[in-house]
Amino acid sequence: MSWFSRLTGSKKPDIPSDLWKKCPNCGEVLINKDLPRNLFLCSKCDHHLRMPIWDRIALLTDDNSFVEFDSDMESQDPLNFIDSAAYPDRIKKAVESTDSFEAVTVGEARLEGREIMLGVMNFDFMGGSMGSVVGEKLTRLMERAIERRMPTVIVSASGGARMQEGIYSLMQMAKTSQAVALLNEAGLPYVSLLTDPTTGGVSASFAMLGDVHIAEPEALIGFAGPRVIEQTIRQKLPEGFQRSDFLLSHGHIDMVIHRRQLKPTLSKLFSLLL
Amino acid sequence: MSWFSRLTGSKKPDIPSDLWKKCPNCGEVLINKDLPRNLFLCSKCDHHLRMPIWDRIALLTDDNSFVEFDSDMESQDPLNFIDSAAYPDRIKKAVESTDSFEAVTVGEARLEGREIMLGVMNFDFMGGSMGSVVGEKLTRLMERAIERRMPTVIVSASGGARMQEGIYSLMQMAKTSQAVALLNEAGLPYVSLLTDPTTGGVSASFAMLGDVHIAEPEALIGFAGPRVIEQTIRQKLPEGFQRSDFLLSHGHIDMVIHRRQLKPTLSKLFSLLL
Amino acid sequence: MSQEFEFEKPIIELEKRLSDLRSLSEEGNIDLSREISAIAEKIEAMKSDIFHSLEPWQVAQVARHLDRPSTLDYVKLLCGDSFVELKGDRLFADDPAMICGFGRFGSIATAIIGHQKGHDTEENIYRNFGMPHPEGYRKSRRVMHLAEKFRKPIIVFIDTPGAFPGIGAEERGQSEAIARSIMEMSRMRVPILCFIIGEGGSGGALAVGIGDRVYMLEHAIYSVISAEGCAAILWKDGAKARDAAAALKFRSTDLLEAGIIDAILPEPLGGAHRNAEFVANAIGDIIQKELPSLMALPADLLLKKRYEKFRAMGKFKLEQDSEHA
Amino acid sequence: MSQEFEFEKPIIELEKRLSDLRSLSEEGNIDLSREISAIAEKIEAMKSDIFHSLEPWQVAQVARHLDRPSTLDYVKLLCGDSFVELKGDRLFADDPAMICGFGRFGSIATAIIGHQKGHDTEENIYRNFGMPHPEGYRKSRRVMHLAEKFRKPIIVFIDTPGAFPGIGAEERGQSEAIARSIMEMSRMRVPILCFIIGEGGSGGALAVGIGDRVYMLEHAIYSVISAEGCAAILWKDGAKARDAAAALKFRSTDLLEAGIIDAILPEPLGGAHRNAEFVANAIGDIIQKELPSLMALPADLLLKKRYEKFRAMGKFKLEQDSEHA
Ligand SMILES: [Zn+2]
Ligand SMILES: [Zn+2]
What we know:
Chain A is of the alpha/beta class.
C-alpha cells in the first residue's frame, strides 16, 4: 500500500556512479550520458529502465508542445508528520534532487498533432507517492480534459499513498477515481500507461480505471507490494508475479508495449476512439 | 446445451411404480399419494424431489389466486423435424402425459397478498426444453409485468434448448434475455428461482439474469451438462459440481433456500425491493 | 491445402493433373494449352456442380475447414494496420478464443469482436478451438461498452463450435457470461453488424450475435446444437450426424428463409478459403453500405428495432387464430 | 471478555473485586452495599478517566477488539428479521469478508453493505479477518447497482484491516476491484450513508466509503496505513507502532477536524462492545434523521454534492496564494 515498501522491495541496482549504472536485468554497464538517447533502454537486453519525467514527456509529445499546469502547487504538512525526518524536510530534499515540486507533472501537449492532457508521475519524488498535490493536479487535469473535450493520458509510477499526509492521502484515491467517472460520462478517452512500478493507492484508483491500459514490459503492477504479500501468506511468490505479462494474461491490461512504440500506439488509439 | 443430455446425465431414480418411488438421495421408499402433502420432500432425508408445476404454483401463491395466461399457445413444427419420432408426435405425447400444452405455465397471482407475475417451467414436458412457445410465453409475461408494474418470478427447470425447433429455439435465449433488459430499465424486481435441473439455453439466458437468484438445495445448475463436460475434458467431475452449494460458493446465486421457506423469502424480498 | 474433403476429391485429382500438365508443358517446352484449358474448364464445372449441391453435412465441413478465413484474417484484410487489439476482461483473464479491439473499415472506425479459431493444431490449442470461457464474453462485453462510450458501431465475427464446456468455465459462470452478453448487447446504443463467417455454434455464438443486421456467409452454419451432438442425443448414434445436419436446417439458405438472418454473402466456388479477399470485400461492402444509415438512426429507435427484430423470432400457434410467426 | 487490554487492567481488577464482594454478600448474607457502591463508583470514574484519555495506539486496540460489534451485529440489532443477505459477485465467488443485502431500518428499506470480521478465530478464518478479496468488492458493487435500480438508499458499515494482500487477490485484480468500486460508488444515484464502526483500513475501507455522509464511532479509526505498517516502513521498526499511531492522526476526533467525516457517534464507556445496543440506537437515529432529506434530493444534485464533498479533500498550497484546503 505504501510507496516506501516498494522502494525497499524492488530490485536495487548496484550503487550507481555519476558516470554509469548497471542494467538491473542483465548487469550490463550503461553510460549515464547515453541513456536519454537510448530512451533509458538497456543497450544489451532492451530492459526498460525507469525514465525521468522530462524524457518521458519528450517521448510522448510533439517537440516543445508541452505546456505545464499547476507547476507551483506544493504540499503542505497537515499532520505535522515527523518520523526519522520531518515531512517538510523530506519534501525539500525531494524537490532539490528531482527539480520538481511534486510527484506528478501535468499539462497539455500535442501527440502527433492531436491535443491531449498528459500527467506523468515521478517515482524519484518520494517514490511517486500520492498526496494531496498529486490528487489535486490529476483531478484538475481530468476536469480540464472535460472542459476542453480532450483525451487524457496518465503515466503512472508510484508506490502508493503518501503516508505523511495520512487520511488526506487516502482521499486522493476517491478524488481521482470520481474524476475518471466524469471522463466516462463525457465520453472522453483516458489511457492509463502503467510503468515500473505502479502499486498501492495509485494502482487501486485512477491507474486501473483507463479505457485502455498499456504497460511497459516487465513493469511491476499490483495492489500490495510483493514483500507485504510474502509476509502475509508466508510463501515465495511465483516468477513473473505482478509483472506486465502476468497482468496481461490475467486480463487487467490491454497490451504490453515497447517504449519506442508508445507514441504511435497512443496516436492510433485516439484516431480510432475519437 | 440440450435437454436430453441432462435427462440421461442426471441421477435416475429406480423405476417408480404407480404407488411409490424411491428417494434418489437416500433410497427411502416414498408413497406417491403422500408426496404433495410433503411438498415432494423426502420424509427421511429432506431431499427436494422435482415438484409438479401445479404443486409448485400452489406452494408459491395465495389460494386460488393464480390466473393463467396464454394457456392455449402451442408449438409448431417449423423444421418438420423427425428423428426416431416426429416432433409433433413427441409434443402430443408430452401434452398427454403432463396435461400441459407446453414446458412453461405462466400467469399472474398473489404472493402473501402481493400481485406478481409467475412463470413455472415443467421438466416433465420434453425435459423443460425451451422452444418458441416457452420463449414467447415468458417474454409476454415480462412485458405484462412492465405494463402492470409488477414483480416477476420465474421458476426454471430445463435441460436447455429444444433441438427440434432448431434455430428458433436458440433465438428464444435472445428474446427472453432482452425482455429482462426491459425489466431492468423499468426498475422492476425479477427473482429467478432455480430448481433441479437448470442447464443449457435456459441457464444461459433469463435464468441467470435475475436481480436475485434463489436455488433449491442440491439442484443441478450449469451451462453444459455434466456428461458433456466429462467427455470434453476426459476427467471425473468433483463431488457436488454444479450443485446449488457449488454455485453459491462460486458467487452465482444469492441463497439456497429450503422449499418451505420459498414463499416467505420471496415475500420478504419484494417488501424490501418494491 | 491442409485439409481435404471426401466430396472434393475429384476436384483435387483434376487439379493435380492440371498442375502436372503445366509442369510438363513448361519443362518440355511443349504446347499443351488446349489440354490445360480443357481441364481447367472441367474443374470449374465440377466445382460448380459440387458446391452448388452440397448437402448440409458437407456445408458443416466447409464451415469448419482449417483454412477457412478466421476473424483475424478478415480484420487484417479489411482494417490492415488500423486494428488495435484490446485484451482482458479486467476480472480474471484474457481469453485468446475471443478477439476484441478497434479498427477502421474504410473511413469508419468501429469496435471489432470475434471468436478466433486457429489454422493449425498449435494455434488451435492456443485459441481453444475458438471456444470461449466466461472471460471471453466478459472481455467482449467490456469492449462493447467502450464502443458505446465512444459512439462507435460494433462489428462482430461469429465463428465458434460453442462456448467451452469445462470445470473452470462452469466455476466462473459460463451461463451468466453468455446471458449477460446477450442482454447487454440488446441494449448497446450503437449499431451492431454481425457476420457469421464459419460455425455459429449455439449459445456461444448467440452470445455475441444480437446485431441490428446479421449476415451469413454462404457456407457458414448457425445452429442450436452441433449435428454430432444432436445425433448422439436424438438418434443415440453420433454417426447419424449427417441426418441430424439435414434435420437441423442450419444452412444460410434455411436461416434466410426463416427470417433469422438478413442476407447471405456468396462465397467463391470451393469455399471462402479459396479466396478470402473476395469474401472480405463483400463484408467490407456491406459495412460501408449499411452502417451509415444505422448510425443516422436515433439510439432509442435503433434499440426499439433491434428489440423487435429478435422479439419476432419463433413459431407458435394459438387456438383462437391459426398461426403466429 | 475474550480480550483484555493492558490499559484496562486496573478496571478489570476492580470489576473482579466488585464481583467477589457481591458473591460474598449474597453467600454470607452480609450487607456490603456501601463497599459495593463505592467500588462501582470508582470503576465508573476510572473508566471515564481511561477512556477519555486514550492515546491513538490504544484507540486502535479498542477499534480492533474481538468483541467489538461487527456489521452483522448492528444489522441484527437494527433490522432484526427484515435483513435478507445476498451473496456472490456473479463472476467468481462469494466473499464472506463482505456482507451484502437488503434490510429495513424502521420504515426505510435500504441496501446494506459491510465488511465482516469474526468474534473468534474460527469465525475470523471464515471471514478472512474482514479482509475482502476482489470478489467482495464486486459483490458489493453488484448489490449497490441493485439499490440504484430499486431506488433504495445504501447503508455501509466499514470495518476492515484492509483489502487482502495475496496471490489470488492480485491475480483477480484487487486494484481494479477497489478502484472501480470507488468510481461507481461516486455515481450511484441513491443516497449513501457510511458508518466506520471499527477499523477503516486504507483502500480496502475507502472502496466502500464514498458516502453522502460518513460517520465514525468514537473509538473507530480510519487510516491510510496501519500503525504497524507505517512504523515498519518509516521508523523501520514495527515496535514503533505507538509513535506511528500518534503521527497518523487516525482517530475520529482528528478526522472530524480534518473534514473527512461528518460526525462522531459516542460510544459507551469502555467501548462499543460494552453496550452494542447503545451504539446501534445511535446509528439507527442517524439513519432515520438523515436519509429522508437525502432521499428528497434530485439524483443529479445528490451526485454533484457527493462529488464536491470528496473533491474538496486535500491540503496544498499555490505560490500565488497562500493556502488551499
Ligand atoms: Zn540489460
Ligand atoms: Zn431421502
